[in-house]
What we know:
Blueprint lengths: L1 E4 L8 E4 L2 E12 L6 E9 L5 E7 L3 E4 L3 E11 L2 E6 L5 E5 H4 L10 E8 L2 E6 L3 E9 L13 E5 L4 E4 L8 E5 L5 E4 L1
Antiparallel strand pairs: 1-6, 2-3, 2-6, 3-4, 4-5, 7-8, 7-10, 8-9, 10-11, 12-13, 12-15, 13-14, 15-16
Pfam family, one: EFP_N
Subcellular location: Cytoplasm
Pathway: Protein biosynthesis; polypeptide chain elongation
Amino acid sequence: xxxxxxxxxxxxxxxxxxxxxxxxxxxxxxxxxxxxxxxxxxxxxxxxxxxxxxxxxxxxxxxxxxxxxxxxxxxxxxxxxxxxxxxxxxxxxxxxxxxxxxxxxxxxxxxxxxxxxxxxxxxxxxxxxxxxxxxxxxxxxxxxxxxxxxxxxxxxxxxxxxxxxxxxxxxxxxxxxxxxxxxxxxxx
Length: 188
């Protein structure tokens, strides 16, 4: 494990806090001005118990980053509420629940390459590719004369994910989506 400054904490990081491993869900820098001093407001989830907490960590404090072993895996298929992944090295299969994937499963199509992070031989998180290409299953029809303006419309992807897209994007088209922000990038 390595110590890092509180200002270096990022969403998705695993840190050790109170002798437990936590996944950072939200993190932002707060400067009160005057007397208060600056701190990091960190919302994190215990990977064992699933409980969430908010912590204020002074910017000059250091926290322990948990050691994780990343493994390259491929998402194979969904079976009920479980998602089946295969290790690219030894071809072993791993089943992760929809609850464990919390907001990430909507980006998964069969044969998507991901990185699964392990801590003490236990899966603790999935790192998706930076972007994915999905097909629009349903969206409002194109409006006559609509151009790339600041108005966006909701589009439901083949996986159930809803993304705001420009008005000229149509049902059945493939679009690239940023997996960090869930935002439309471009038409494919």
